[in-house]
Amino acid sequence: MKKFFKTAGVIFLLVLVSLSVWCFANMKDRHPDYHVDMKIRNQSSSELKAGFAAVPVTPEVPDRWEDKNGDFKYNPKDGDTFTDGNGNGKFDPVWIAGFSNNKPATGVHDDTWARTMVIDDGKTRLAIVILDVIGFMHDDVVDVRKMLPENLGLTYTIIASTHTHEGPDLMGLWGKHPLKSGVDKTYMQFVKEQTVKSVETAVKNLCPARLEISQDLSGAVPQVKDTRQPEVFDSGLRFIRAVDKITGETLGSLLSWGNHPETLWSGNLLVSSDFPHFFREGVEKGVLNKDSLVQPGIGGVAVFMNGAIGGLMCTHRTHPITDPFSGDVLVEPSFEKAEAQGNILSMLALDAMQRPSEVIETAGISLVVRTLKLPIKNTLFKLATALGVLDRGTAGWMKMKTELAVFSIGPVSFVTIPGEIYPEIINGGVEAPQGRDFEIGLTEVPPVRELMPGKYKFVIGLANDEIGYIIPKSQWDVKAPFTYERDDSPYGEENSLGPETAPVLHRNLKEMLQELGE
Question: Model's pTM, two decimal places?
Answer without folding.
Answer: 0.96
